[in-house]
């Protein structure tokens, strides 16, 4: 191998780079190349993290052979020093040597961090640029701030691509990054994104704001930075190759949010109906941060989950009457006027599956629990004319909900002498397959519904099946509430079969990945805590606009800790 530029024939630069650059690393050269082999056909744009090798120079012959055999691959070589967030323990001169020889091995681009560039002579950088395109990178592993000021010293260097990577500590940091990209990308070739779970938005919609591409992990579990998404997920779930300026952005907001099934379900629905929309996880640590993000991105619609179903109410401009009576909102739509309108589709999640089996009017229905999910069930069923009974471990909470909804609170001892048309578990008991609120003898009903959807068949549903009772799984409830959200946002009927298939498939995949140890099964007491959903929502009434002005007409019926590793 030679560094003589007279004998070096650089590979031509592509006129347009793909949207996704997959980060490749290995503990040795053979492993690194094998990973590249496995993904190159589907993802031909690769970044080789040479600093992950104990001796990067020894890995270059294999890299050269790989690139000569895969001429369609577009490659970036990175060898970041420890002092600048990488793993390379060598000197600045050694880093420069690795990057130079990587270019000679066939990499079309080399990544040089700003700190190293500032320590090198202009002639050294220019010599490197004769061999490969220069990606000048900057990383902030703590925060996102003053990006235009950060960019000023970078512009001193004549790079082919400028890469600005920060860390999101709030959803609003994504707004800062998007505005920076929108302002600067017309004058410079930029890559911009935020690391961290709260920066996931930027990894998908950064390309919409002007980022030339984004980074992805080769497979789940091989992330080189917090919040990095696997390439297959970026393409298949988030359809990043179709994201453009017209793409509508939706999301699910909560704390925590990482295990939500909503992104898989909703993105499948958008794909099935061929809608130019994408649905993202939004890890909101504060309600004010979420509202700022909704307006700043802007988001067209948001699914609201715990702990913000109540708190969001005072930030709405209007909400449906039922939503206000329940005291919780799980669906927000931002109208063309920029105002926020609230709905509660948990009601549809409960009522629709029941209506498909029995007529709720006059039916005797027992609701277990008195939290937010129970409130949606109680108010929704009362509105359909059902006779509703509430059983909760804390009697005072059940009695309060019963007074508000004109239902009846009962005690557990009453179950021996009562029978129902439907029993609904509206508590988390049974999640993970562990436990049941009631025992077999207490299942005096024709139909049993469990709002818990992980596992698909809970202990409660299994007992009901064994007793010959009809059952409704939490998956059906989850899908139906999501289908109603889809209808509110799009005005179209939801592809319910597709949504349910995706949710069940994802649950089975997760269950298969979990340890198979037997968990003890027990009959648990009814809900330990009173529901937080009893908070007064007077502020909403104050600023409510007439409901008829709402812009949507409902369609007819539905971690790792932050590390200094790079992108």
Describe the structure.
The protein is about 35% helix and about 15% strand. The strands form three sheets. An eight-stranded parallel beta sheet has the order 7-6-5-4-3-2-1-8. Strands 10-9-11-13-14-12 form a six-stranded mixed beta sheet, with helices on both faces. Helix 10 (about 260-270) links the parallel strand 9 and strand 10. With about 575 residues, it is of the alpha/beta class. The model is unreliable at about 1-10 and about 515-565 (pLDDT under 50). The protein contains 19 helices and 20 strands. The chain has helices at about 30-40, 55-70, 90-105, 115-120, 120-130, 145-150, 170-185, 200-210, 230-235, 260-270, 285-295, 320-325, 345-355, 370-385, 395-405, 460-465, 475-490, 495-515, 540-545, and strands at about 20-25, 45-50, 75-80, 110-115, 135-140, 160-165, 190-195, 215, 250-255, 275-285, 300-305, 320, 330-335, 340-345, 365-370, 385-390, 410, 420-425, 445-450, 470. Helix 1 packs parallel to helix 2.
Draw up the topology in text.
Layout: E1 20-24, H1 29-40, E2 45-49, H2 56-69, E3 74-78, H3 92-104, E4 109-113, H4 114-119, H5 122-129, E5 133-139, H6 147-151, E6 161-167, H7 172-184, E7 190-195, H8 200-209, E8 214-217, H9 231-236, E9 248-254, H10 262-272, E10 277-283, H11 287-296, E11 301-304, E12 318-319, H12 321-326, E13 331-334, E14 340-343, H13 346-355, E15 364-368, H14 372-383, E16 387-391, H15 395-405, E17 408-409, E18 420-425, E19 445-450, H16 459-466, E20 470-472, H17 474-490, H18 496-513, H19 538-543
Parallel strand pairs: 1-2, 1-8, 2-3, 3-4, 4-5, 5-6, 6-7, 9-10, 9-11, 12-14, 15-16, 15-18, 16-17, 18-19, 19-20
Antiparallel strand pairs: 11-13, 13-14
């Amino acid at each position: 191998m030679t560094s003589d530029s007279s004998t070096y024939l650089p590979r031509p630069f592509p006129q347009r780079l793909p949207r996704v650059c997959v980060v490749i690393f290995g503990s040795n050269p053979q492993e690194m190349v094998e990973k590249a082999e496995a993904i190159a056909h589907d993802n031909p744009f690769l970044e080789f993290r040479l600093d992950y090798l104990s001796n990067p120079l020894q890995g270059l012959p294999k890299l050269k052979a790989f690139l000569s055999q895969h001429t369609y691959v577009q490659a970036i070589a990175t060898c970041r020093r420890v002092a600048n967030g990488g793993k390379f323990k060598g000197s600045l001169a050694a880093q420069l040597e690795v990057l130079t020889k990587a270019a000679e091995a066939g990499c079309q681009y080399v990544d040089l961090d700003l700190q190293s560039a500032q320590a090198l002579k202009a002639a050294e950088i220019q010599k490197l640029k004769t061999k490969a395109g220069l990606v000048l990178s900057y990383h902030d592993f703590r925060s996102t701030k003053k990006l235009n000021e950060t960019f000023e010293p970078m512009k001193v260097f004549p790079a082919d691509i400028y890469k600005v990577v920060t860390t999101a500590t709030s959803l609003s940091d994504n707004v800062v990054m998007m505005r920076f990209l929108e302002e600067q990308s017309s004058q410079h070739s930029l890559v911009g994104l935020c690391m961290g779970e709260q920066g996931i938005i930027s990894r998908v919609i950064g390309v919409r704001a002007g980022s030339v591409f984004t980074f992805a992990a080769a497979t789940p579990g091989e992330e080189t930075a917090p919040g990095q998404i696997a390439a297959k997920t970026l393409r298949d779930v988030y359809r990043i190759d179709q994201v453009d300026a017209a793409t509508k952005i939706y999301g699910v907001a909560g704390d925590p949010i990482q295990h939500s099934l909503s992104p898989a379900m909703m993105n499948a629905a958008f794909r099935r109906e061929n809608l130019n929309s994408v649905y993202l996880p939004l890890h909101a640590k504060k309600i004010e941060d979420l509202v700022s993000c909704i307006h700043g991105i802007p988001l067209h619609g948001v699914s609201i989950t715990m702990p913000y179903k109540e708190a969001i109410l005072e930030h709405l401009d209007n909400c449906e009457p039922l939503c206000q009576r329940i005291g919780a909102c799980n669906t927000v739509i931002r109208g063309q006027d920029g105002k926020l309108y609230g709905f509660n589709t948990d009601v549809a999640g409960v009522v629709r599956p029941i209506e498909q089996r029995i007529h709720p009017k006059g039916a005797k229905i027992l609701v277990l629990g008195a939290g937010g999910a129970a409130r949606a069930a109680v108010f929704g069923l009362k509105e359909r004319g059902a006779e509703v009974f509430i059983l909760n471990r804390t009697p005072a909470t059940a009695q309060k909900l019963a007074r508000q909804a004109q239902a009846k609170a009962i005690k557990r001892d009453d179950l021996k002498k009562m029978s129902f048309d439907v029993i609904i578990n509206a508590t988390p008991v049974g999640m993970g397959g562990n436990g049941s609120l009631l025992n077999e003898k207490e299942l005096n009903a024709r139909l049993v519904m469990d709002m818990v959807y992980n596992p698909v068949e809970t202990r409660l549903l299994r007992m009901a099946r064994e007793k010959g009772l009809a059952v409704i799984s939490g998956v059906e409830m989850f899908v139906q509430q999501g289908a109603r959200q889809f209808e509110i946002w799009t005005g179209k009927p939801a592809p319910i079969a597709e949504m349910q298939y995706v949710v069940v498939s994802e649950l089975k995949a997760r269950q298969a990945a979990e340890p198979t140890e037997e968990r003890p099964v027990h009959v648990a007491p009814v809900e330990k805590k009173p529901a937080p959903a009893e908070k007064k929502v007077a502020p909403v009434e104050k600023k409510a606009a007439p409901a008829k002005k709402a812009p949507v007409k409902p369609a007819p019926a539905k971690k790792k800790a932050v590390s200094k590793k790079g992108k």
